[in-house]
Design a protein that fits this description.
- This protein is an alpha/beta fold.
- 56% of the residues lie in helices and 6% in strands.
- The protein has 17 helices and 5 strands.
- The two termini are 49 Å apart.
């Protein structure tokens, strides 16, 4: 489910960046509204491709090639010491340096490759400053401008103040009426924020453990503090997380640096930020999210357990062609259904074993899961069907080695099953019974228990 959501979100975000990379201004243009999520965005982009500005397209393509190239260099072995002196190509060339010099070059290359997002933005700011005749006024209109720029943003930090509990425009509106009006929307925003934040965290956590409670507490504290500066609702941003990951961020300390940079930009660097071309920003986000599409997991899942593809693909297609929050809900619902089905239909192994004391042998029945309310009827039906297929003199041995719990409802169902065996005068013996399981079953009916395989000869 998480992989499906992450991949669909990546495709959606990557598609949205194409407008910026191509310099498309769709203001006033009739947009597609067929209700197919990302398809609408793709139709809007490629249906208005004639509005593309070649300057922005060339810059966007240059930025994408630049970022992909530095990423490839960072993952290459060109600057690592060669174990085999016969190694050729770039690695052999750089290994001609002394070991100390090679290490310095490697660290310098790593720094520039890791900082490639910041590097490409600074290069484009400098390029814009040198060749843009209209300067930062290009955020108002692209006429006469070389690139479409981010434009002027009001500088300064927001002021701290108490949250607004009354409507500033309608004195008749009370706090209780505001709560009644906005609470459903606020609850929905909170639910979506929590789901997306945890989904994004799991997507980037990989094999490492994740504390969902910690994520929710952090999200709640951020929104609580944000209320005092008039902040928008705070949630996880897949595109920013992808850019952070592409920039080599490994710990939450990266958020501190990001916050400091944002504060510095708001306070002092807004004139420079106004010169950032939108095509550059689009290329940075595009290159950050495109590598989070997890297509590589499809093949191993297909080769192992194909049923696991159902919730993931369902989440992927609903997120991609409808809405992200609905896709997560659909994927979770299907995953819960598969878990409930597995719980309600556990495997029950039935074998006819030979016994020196019984010519007909005995039935060795092994349920492979705990017996609870959802699975009680299924297990009882299989055991009864297997027992009825043999002679009533054939004893039944129920191996409980893989049963770690039985609830009261299941115990009552087993009691009814034992009564059926009693009427047929067919013997039932319980093997390898856990103490807690025995206590639960014995509380509703009498059972005959044996402790190990050696005692089976008594059957």
């Amino acid at each position: 489910v998480i992989s499906g959501f992450a991949s669909a979100a990546s495709l959606q975000i990557a598609g949205l960046q194409l407008n910026k990379m191509l310099g498309l201004n769709l203001t006033g243009v009739e947009k597609s509204d067929i209700g197919l999520g990302a398809v609408d965005d793709w139709i809007n982009t490629f249906g208005n491709i004639e509005l593309c500005r070649w300057q922005d397209a060339v810059l966007g393509l240059f930025c994408v090639i630049f970022l992909f190239s530095l990423r490839a260099v960072n993952k290459s072995n060109w600057f690592t010491p060669a174990d085999d002196k016969s190694e050729g190509g770039c690695q052999a060339f750089w290994n001609k340096l002394e070991k100390k010099n090679l290490l310095m070059v490697k660290r310098g290359v790593w720094f520039f490759c890791t900082a490639r997002n910041a590097l490409v933005i600074m290069i484009c700011i400098l390029l814009t400053y040198l060749i843009e005749p209209a300067g930062s006024d290009c955020h108002l209109t692209s006429d006469g401008c070389v690139f479409t720029l981010t434009g002027n943003i009001l500088p300064g930090l927001p002021s701290w103040q108490l949250p607004v509990f009354l409507s500033p425009t309608d004195i008749q509106t009370t706090f209780s009426s505001m709560v009644a009006q906005h609470m459903p929307g606020a609850a929905l925003i909170a639910l979506i924020a929590v789901l997306q934040n945890i989904a994004i965290a799991k997507s980037f956590a990989g094999s490492r453990s994740l504390d969902a409670n910690q994520e929710m507490v952090a999200l709640g504290l951020c929104n609580f503090a944000g209320a005092f500066i008039g902040s928008m609702p705070i949630g996880g941003s897949f595109s920013r997380c992808a850019v952070n990951s592409a920039s080599g961020v490994k710990t939450p300390l990266g958020g501190l640096y990001s916050g400091i940079i944002v504060i510095l930009c708001l306070a002092f660097l807004m004139p420079a930020c106004a010169l950032i071309p939108k095509a550059t920003l689009g290329a940075v986000v595009f290159c950050g999210v495109v590598f989070t599409i997890e297509f590589q997991i499809v093949k191993p899942i297909w080769n192992s357990k194909r049923m696991d593809l159902l919730p993931g693909l369902s989440s992927f297609f609903v997120c991609l062609f409808f809405r992200l929050e609905v896709g997560i809900a659909v994927g979770v619902f299907i995953q819960l259904c598969t878990l409930l089905y597995a719980s309600a239909r556990p495997t029950v192994e039935v074998d006819l074993m030979k016994s020196p004391t019984s010519p007909a042998g005995y039935l060795h029945i092994t349920p492979h899961h705990s017996i609870t309310f959802p699975s009680a009827t299924h297990v009882r039906t299989i055991i009864n069907k297997a027992a009825k297929s043999k002679n009533s003199t054939t004893p039944v041995v129920i191996d409980c080695s893989k049963i770690d719990s039985v609830d009261f409802t299941a115990a009552k169902s087993l009691k009814a099953m034992l009564e059926d065996f009693s009427r047929r005068k067919q013997r039932v013996v319980w093997l390898n019974m856990d103490e807690e399981v025995e206590k639960t079953v014995a509380s509703v009916c009498k059972i005959e228990k044996i402790g190990n395989v050696q005692e089976l000869s008594n059957v």
